[in-house]
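Exercise 7.
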Amino acid sequence: MLFERPEAGRQALILHVELRGQANPELNEFAELARSAEIDVVGKIPARRDQPHPRTFVGSGKVSEVAAMLNAAKADLLLVNHELSAGQQRNLEGELQCRVITRTELILTIFADRARSHEGQLQVELAQLNHAQTRLVRGWTHLDRQKGGIGLRGAGEKQIELDQRMLSDRVKATQKKLAAVSKRRHQNRRGRSRRGTPTIALVGYTNAGKSTLFNRLTSSDVYAEDQLFATLDPTMRQVSVPGVRDAVLTDTVGFVSLLPHALVEAFKATLEEVVYADLLLHVVDVADPSWEEHMFQVREVLQEIGVSGAAELVVFNKIDKLGTAAMPAIDLVASQCGTEGKHSPASPPTKICGAYPVSAIEGSGINELVEGIGAALGVASPHEVFLNSGDGKTRAWLYRSGAVLDEQTTEDGNLHLTLMADDALLAQLQKSKDVRLHRYNRDPKLSPTIN
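Solution. The predicted structure, written as tokens, is:
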């Protein structure tokens, strides 16, 4: 331990401070973060200020009120829905005689509990180390003492300098390990690019249903729960999109309002999969009253990590939680998504290619979404192919490519396949003299011959 602090318990009060003229985190979201950390919130204390108090963030009167409520509720933990300087945090803990946890520390606690993969644990460790470095600056007075002796610099070295050096060495070592992870991801992306394998990344606000949609699209069973930051470790699976061979879907960590910069920096190795993706699926929880604001906040993070010009499909998830009366409004928003207006920033970091209302948990709207994914990835319009009955090699190749939508046998025993194929696949088919290829039309009399 770098400093002595009161023991933390599980009975907590939330101190929610709104600073006038500034962006403030949401109270309900912070309470959900506490629930995700398995903390029992026994009360909430609101406060408003023009600016933070330099010593305790809130004034002495509010500190006395918090102390009385802590005593009455027998709570042993104070959660502050904001960032505190190291000095403010130390002073509050000294006056209240209980552990004080900031918004960033609460998120880091959840991340540390959820990370399972080696990469995820490295990223959390880096975020914790970066945060710990800020706590050593003018924060803990007991570290401000000098040591002298053989092997130490000059006449003596302050304890805080020793701790800073120790943290700096650990940060460098962790960054080196993450650089190796980033290099390996870059090599994997380059290999997929050579094979022409498109990458689709799920992005969105935390608890929007990304992992449930991931499981629905890939027939997987990754962890998906109704809690914030249920997914922390990056997961990649092959997804079947008609006409697209070997597409890869990536599930990523969810975003929250005012996402701490240290977390964005630490998770860059994972978030690179978003930056270099061929298509983003922006999952929005339309059952959340704040879903429009969440869309803006996700796009702000996308801009921060360097996303520019990527294709985006907006997925309005959890329509099963809406009444039928709300669906026309969602359909209207979907039709307007991408135009300059209240549902899209004037200069979005992505190119919005469409919007799809779905229920990932029930499966409604998924087929339409898959067709939209194919269209956004450049899949051509449906085509029909006639193969000789003995051409099993071409038939098997078309099925491996995931292009076959339907198959029928004609009266003369040949094969009639309906395809959803991209230009590259169509070009290969056109090279075969034994294959008859037509652009698909529901009225066969109107289907022009291509080959």
